[in-house]
């Protein structure tokens, strides 16, 4: 783990990654994370999903998450209920809620994901 430190970074400094259980061009940049800043209470990512890209349905034991849709549209499933999400929607995911997001739109789906605490498994 990286030592904790205060930083200023430009988004272009972090490479795009396709994290495990993300498919079809579901790319993210881990801007604030244990590996990049040594953060313990926060994981902050920007993600962009190509059409038909998705993260498989999953659950976090103790993590809370906020998704903030910046552009595009897709489908967000939470606990078996699916809803269209689009620009300016903010989604809160409570611990224990099964969830997934899919880009079902015509263009890129771009969003911020904030997760705390980082380690729950």
TrEMBL record:
Keywords, comma-separated and alphabetical: Metal-binding
GO molecular function: metal ion binding
Record carries keyword Transport: no
Pfam families in the cross-refs: Cupin_2
Domain of life according to the entry: Bacteria
TM stretches of this protein: none
Alphabetized InterPro entries for the sequence: Cupin_2, GPI/OXD, RmlC-like_jellyroll, RmlC_Cupin_sf
Keyword Metal-binding assigned: yes
Domain Cupin type-2: 47-114
Protein's name in the database: Cupin 2 conserved barrel domain protein
């Amino acid at each position: 783990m990286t030592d904790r430190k205060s930083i200023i970074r430009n988004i272009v400094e972090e490479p795009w990654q396709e994290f495990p259980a993300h498919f079809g061009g579901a790319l993210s940049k881990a801007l604030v994370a244990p590996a990049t800043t040594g953060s313990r209470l926060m994981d902050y990512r920007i993600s962009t999903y190509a059409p038909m890209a998705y993260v498989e349905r999953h659950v976090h034991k103790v993590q809370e998450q906020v998704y903030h849709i910046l552009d595009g549209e897709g489908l967000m499933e939470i606990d078996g209920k699916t809803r269209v999400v689009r620009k300016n929607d903010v989604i809160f995911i409570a611990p224990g809620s099964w969830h997934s997001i899919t880009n079902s739109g015509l263009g890129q789906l771009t969003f911020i994901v904030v997760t705390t605490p980082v380690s729950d498994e």
